[in-house]
Amino acid sequence: MTTLRGMYDNYFEARARNVNLEDITSSENNAFILERLRNSDDAFKAMGITGDNDDWLDENNFVVREGDSLGWLGYFIGKSERLESLWVSHLPGDDSFRQGLAQNQSIQSLCIYSDLREAGGFQNFAPFFRNTKTLKELFFGSNISLECAQNIALLLSRCQMKSLKSIEFGENEINDEGLAEVARALSMQPQLEKLDLTWTNSGDTPFRRGYAALGATMKGWKSPSLKKLYIFVDDIDDDGLQALADGMSNCYNLEDLVLGANDSVITEVGLRALSALLRSKKICLQWLSLGFMNIDDDGITALADGLASLQSLKSLNLSFNDIGDEGLQALAASLANSDIEKLDVSCNGSFSDIGLRCLSDVLPTALNLKSLNLGGNSINGEGLHALAGGLTKTSSLRWLNLANNAIDDEALQVLVEGMENLRNIETLSLSGNRVTASGLSVLTPIFHRDSCSLKEIDLDGMDIGDEGAEVLAEGLRGNKSLTKLMFDCTDVTDMGWSAFSRLLCDTSSVNNTYLSNHTLEVIGCRFDDQFNVIPSSVKHYFKLNKQNQHDVTICKILMSHADLDMTPFFQWKLKLLPLVVAWLERARSCRAYVEESITSFERRELSSVYQFIRGLPLLVVDGFYKQKSTHAHSKKRKFDQRDK
User: Fold this and answer.
1) Residue 602, class by beta-carbon neighbours within 10 Å (0-12 exposed, 13-18 middle, 19+ buried)?
2) pTM score
3) Which of 475, 354, 345, 484 is nearest to 416 (CA)?
4) How far apart are CA 641 and CA 587, in angstroms?
5) Tens digits of residue pLDDT in 178-206
6) 569 half-sphere exposure, CB direction, 13 A CA radius
7) How far apart are CA 262 and CA 291, in angstroms?
8) What sections of 249-296 are H helices per DSSP?
9) Based on the number of CB atoms within 10 Å of its own CB, is 638 exposed (0-12), middle (13-18) or buried (19 or more)?
10) CA gap 105, 220 in Å, rounded
């Protein structure tokens, strides 16, 4: 007996090769998409299904209009072995489409950007969800009404999708009841490794039932696989945090926990529950982010015991809270002798020398700390002096952010002295401070260290001007590590850019060109609207440094010196000739950058070799007669030996 599905398969299978795609689509682009699916185009791995009114133009979008056969669309998607990503913002109900889509075993990522209120809605995906063995990522990107939440919940609760590893709700509005519906449905998906909930409460009541349901779901999972939990909502209070902490106590594989964007007040009551979770020996969190959570000194003190017990912690983000000196002291004590690699306590208001001294005392014990963010905390000279004591005993730090504080010229000098042992520092941000143009000269010792590893420095928001440009350009002479120097260049004139031009390519002699800076790739201008003020010659040097790093010195020499003076090389005599020829061979790769024709370049090449040979005529003659003399002496010795 032939089933309905069998009839479906037979109908499309018999006609697939010969069907005229223009007859079953409403546009050339739709026909082209079906053709790429039919031909198993290796490059066609992602597509979308949208409506005619969607403001989302993309050549990979199948725009559903009158005249499009959704049955054929479903069939070709179902047969595809190349399609990996599908996004949908419009999907009218069609049974033949559902049957075709359900057969697909290549789609790994499905993104739904609509509440899909059309006929069938989310249930169009039900057969696909039941059959898929490849779907790994599911994304919902629209505001979620209660009806929509119920439909999503129904979809997720029907069966476990064992291949599904990640569910993400991106910047949606939902109410407490809708969150509870979705949270309960997730009980069927214990195999999830990532759950990302970015929600705004659209209702009049807090998310109490929603958080309670989510906590109960996580608590009830058997052998949960959850590794990453991201919750960005505006309504986490103590009760919600307690419910979430209770649920997470069952998630032994949890590595990343991000809670943020909260407008409610979290007190020590909620944070004490989180601290108890962190103290559990079964929890192995490596990444903990609690930014924008309204945590104050009492809250961080309540959390400190848990942090001290969490030996697996590698990254801690406490930015944009209300932590002061007392909280910083408690935090520092909890991190003593830890394996933490990244600490962010930026934008908490104000840290004085009291709190910073406690942090300074702990820094030498944090042997793996690579990133420290203290930006936006009104740190002044006294605070920096307290911090510098710890920096002098720290060698692992690679990234240091002190932006938007109260650092002046004198405080910068203290910082530079404190960075004496920071041999591995690669990025330093000082933007938004009070350093003057002349005060920037204290950075020169950092640039000139033989062991300097600094790759990026941010001085944005300072009054640099021509004076600062000249100071920085002079300070960077001889530096071979810095690739990016960021600052506001609106007040830099030709005088300042001339200093940078000399830094990048000093044309006064071949030797000075060789000794110019060949590592800088970006100077100034964080924003695109400032990029146009940079002279074209300086931009060209950036391009050379970035794109032709192996032969950049050769390129600059050829650009700046039409005739190469070979006289300095005469002291090495003819033994240098092979090196001269090899250098000129390498120089051919730079011809495109110096915009020179092949004929012109070959003339310069022959001229250089000619100058070198012409400068050594006596050496050539002496070499010839020395060879003749050696040959004559050799023949004489042979005759003498024969006579004996």
Assistant:
1) middle
2) 0.87
3) 475
4) 53
5) 999 999 999 999 999 999 998 777 777 77
6) 21
7) 9
8) 268-279
9) exposed
10) 30
